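Agenda item 2: zinc ion complex prediction
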Amino acid sequence: MRMRLAILISICVVIVALSVVSFLTYENWRTHRYDHLIMEAAVDHQLPPGLLKAIMDARGHFNYYTMGEKGEVGLLQVPQEGVAEYKKAKLSPDYEFGYVCINKAHPPHTGIKQNIRGPCNICKSRLIPEMWYPRQNVEVGAWYLAKLKADIEGADGSGKRNLEDAIPLMVAAYCLTDKNVRAATDNFRNPVLPPGLRNSIRDILEKYERYRQRL
Ligand SMILES: [Zn+2]
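Presented output:
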């Protein structure tokens, strides 16, 4: 009887241990799987990678299919005004984002774009809107953050604003609209955010403090 109990307990311990290990492995994969995209975009747009990761964690929760209340889209929860600015500056104002396949099938064809929704022409799996496609989403979000950074750095005329001072303004303009933050900070000239605005982005700033040390 005691022998059986011992076996039962051992089995339980093994099950718990395996669950913990698989959970940790999964968490590690989940929170690091987009690091390569973050690093590429950070280099291309001269942004701190920790800032991109903080937004991805706090707002996108590492889910590429996340949609925000005001239409913020994807991993970086890119605001609709950011999408519009990107189209205007980099593509054309009437550019239509299409649909892409994210199936890692053979032959590899991730990123191939179709203009209409529906199954992938190659593998027949379901397509996702192009703005959700992680590489495209991170590119657009990072581009918009860099644009805001340039606007903020140029706002006081010296063009020499410290990046760490500019970051709360960048994040606020990104998440709470450029217009609102300009109105609250004298067109970005005042580096101090009103407490209400700062509170709304506290989750991102806290995560940034952590990710700036290590992704
Ligand atoms: Zn496909």
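Discussion summary: The CA atoms of residues 62 and 141 lie 14 Å apart.
Owner for follow-up: CH.
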